Amino acid sequence: MNKSVIVLCLALATLALSACAEREQTASGIKSDAAPYNGTNRPPPFTAAGWKAGDRNSWEQEMKVRTMQGQNEYAKVP
């Protein structure tokens, strides 16, 4: 009886510790090989007015404008 209790305790300890193992974390979701400046081919409400899809320089300029006008907290302070 003593050996069966020890074996049962070891089995329970093994089961409990196996739940603590870390699972492999892999990236999931949308994977795209397209460059960001190629756009999504969506209608104008989803794109900036002056931006041309596929033009890298135009995309970089729009990102600079968006950063300075909408996301720069120092520009918002009076």
TrEMBL record:
Stretch list, region Disordered: 28-54
Superkingdom of the organism of origin: Bacteria
Signal peptide range: 1-21
PROSITE patterns the record matches: PROKAR_LIPOPROTEIN (PS51257)
Protein keywords: Signal
Protein name: Lipoprotein
Organism listed in the record: Ramlibacter ginsenosidimutans
